Amino acid sequence: MTHFPARAVLFDLDGTLLDTIGDLAEAANRMLSELGRPQRPLEEIHSFVGKGLPNLVYRCLAENASATEADVDAAIPVFRRHYIAVNGDTTRIYPGIVETLETLRARRLKLAVVTNKAGDFTLPLLERMDIARYFQAVVSGDTLPVKKPDPAMLIHACELLGVSPREAVMIGDSANDALAARAAGMPVLLVSYGYSEGMPVDTIECDGLLSDALQALDHIIPA
């Protein structure tokens, strides 16, 4: 088993820490209904999650359908309004996450969330799920002008934590996380239970696959 000495661990949010798909699908279908468009099954919306809110809205409107840029621009505030109303209603913490965060904190590692979800949704959700207290930094999808897979988000999180990227490990569920970590020069572990934009997670280049969050503790050792 490969071990990675680290001073910090960065976590993706949707599909890694939290199972948020129920709320995302509810908001998306409320949006589609308001716009007079057909509903989409949860499984399909599941495959749309990963590159942030505008991409999710675009795919809900345009996948096997047609939508102009103006349609998407008009739909985004509709989605935001509905998602604010349901954010956290059916979200659940994945098994082993709290124990993993507790152990990493006890090992004195610094922790951060790096997510493409907008900050208006991220921060209230972390508080509602009672896990905000574990993280010294949160980098959301609108913190910088770019989103994952751009490595700038991960590098910014490391700056906030006072560590170099080579002293951190990324834990995520998709190619966005893997590509961002690779470009930032840090190891990346991917969970097999997440969303991964419909891509088989075992086809994504990474440094380890986790079927359970607790397995991360076997790979990460304090530097």
From TrEMBL:
GO MF assignments: metal ion binding; phosphoglycolate phosphatase activity
Enzyme class, first EC level, given as a word: hydrolase
Cofactor(s) needed by this chain: Mg(2+)
Origin superkingdom: Bacteria
Purpose of the protein: Specifically catalyzes the dephosphorylation of 2-phosphoglycolate. Is involved in the dissimilation of the intracellular 2-phosphoglycolate formed during the DNA repair of 3'-phosphoglycolate ends, a major class of DNA lesions induced by oxidative stress.
GO biological process, one term: glycolate biosynthetic process
Protein name: Phosphoglycolate phosphatase
Record-listed Mg(2+) binding positions: D12, D14, D173
Pfam families: HAD_2 (PF13419)
